[in-house]
Amino acid sequence: MDTNLALTIIGSVMTVIGVVFIAIPKVVNEKTMNDLPSEAVNISALFRAANGGLGLALGMVAIYARNLPTEYAETVLLSLGTGFILVNMALLSGKIRGFGDELPVPPMAIFLILTIIAYYTALG
């Protein structure tokens, strides 16, 4: 896959995730967290919005890096892919450490797919 296309896909997905998390954090929390106590609604929305800012930032990095020469774009892709692996490991560690009973499968699947795109393009 062309580095421009891979970075466009990754950038677009991360930008959409970031915008949604910032725009409607309470709705995202309602869809992803069962039985959230009412006293935790606002603070969890704050953290969801902060996560949205990080997703948006990564999306912008990927989009702005699209037109880099291939060797530099591949470095960005390897960095993003490694970052996505670390995010999945952090999510998995939350389950292992007892912070929740369920694994957040949809985001983990998204990050796995983005990791595959990043590594396949950078190393392929």
Index terms:
124 residues
Mean pLDDT: 94
Radius of gyration (Å): 16 Å
Largest sheet: none
Give helix and strand order, one letter per element, not per position: HHHHH
Residues in helix, %: over 70%
Ends apart, CA distance between termini: 8 Å
Low-confidence segments, given as residue ranges, are none
- Give the helix tally: 5
Query: What's the domain count?
Result: 1
Shape: elongated
Q: Give the tally of β-strands.
A: 0
How large is the share of residues in beta strands? under 5%
Structure, described:
The protein has 124 residues and is mostly helical. It has one domain. Helix content is 80%, strand content 0%. It contains five helices and no strands. It has helices spanning 3-23, 25-32, 41-64, 70-96, 105-123. Helix 1 (3-23) packs across helix 4. The relative contact order is 0.18. The model has no long low-confidence stretch (mean pLDDT 94).
